[in-house]
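Fig. S4 source data, part A: sequence.
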Amino acid sequence: MREVIVISGVTGMTGNELARQYVNKGVNVVGFDNFFASSIRSVSDLESNKHFTFFEYDINNIEQMRKLQKYLELNYKDYNLYFINCAAVVHTKHFYNVNDTFETNVLGMKSFLDMAIGLRAKKFINCSTSEVYSMQSWKKEGVKEEDSITLATVENSQRTSYATGKLLTEFFIKDAVLKDLIQGCSIRFANVYSNDELYSEHIIPYIIDKLKSNNCITLLENSKINSRTFLHNYDSCSSIISLLESDKALDGSVYNVGTQEEIQILELVQKIANKMNIKNLQIYYDGYRENDPIRRLLNTDKIKAKTNWKETITLNMGLDMCINTKVKNNE
């Protein structure tokens, strides 16, 4: 039977690359986005493709979601429907907006899941976040999916509202799978980056943009001690595809997706500066972020045991891709 992939947040960093990988295989993709943290430019190469259909819809708009459901009912009645929820109030600056994170990450996800179940979709992938590990993500061997979570509290971090909402979505998908309503799972991604990011909100494009304009950069005080792993969005998307193709993995549980290439933020800045041939690098510090974990290292044994997924883009490769894209776009 033919397939169609339905993607929320399709113009976002994960959504647009995921759509591209499917469309390039000749698979039909129906996607929507409200451009909260993205732009139609991210899928400009797909707009004229017969396998790609886009709607400027908001996952929180009930009427627009009804229109989407009707469209799918009318046009894809005899297709296997696979839903992928990439909608999220992303970028750190939005983590502290409790209302937005609740509406999109909790209510929006639940209505999208209900739509999938109502349409008798076969599978549902829920993109969660490694933010749920909060201050627990420092473990030497990498935090595992089954490890207990100790979230920061409302007393000291509004940021936790984002993680708490995402954690709740994992219960929704688990419950739906246990009731045999759908196959599915949740994914907790590490720090995802892309060479096609439109805005310099994440750390890698931020560093490149700042160093491109001059030889100095301003970082948070946390950067003096923090380290992270970085996952290229090509690999984050390939993990979704691998999970969709593995029925045994769609058991309602959670899967970590990340790399083991841990790097200190200051080392990352220096590495990028070296690649850009920047001399006399100047680093300044301003501000401090409460409840920012020192490390963010995920154990990925589970997904590698259940699927054929593995990361393919090393940090060196990814940084070169990002820098080359930035230089090309400014020529």
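Fig. S4 source data, part B ends here. Residues 98-118 form the longest helix (21 residues).
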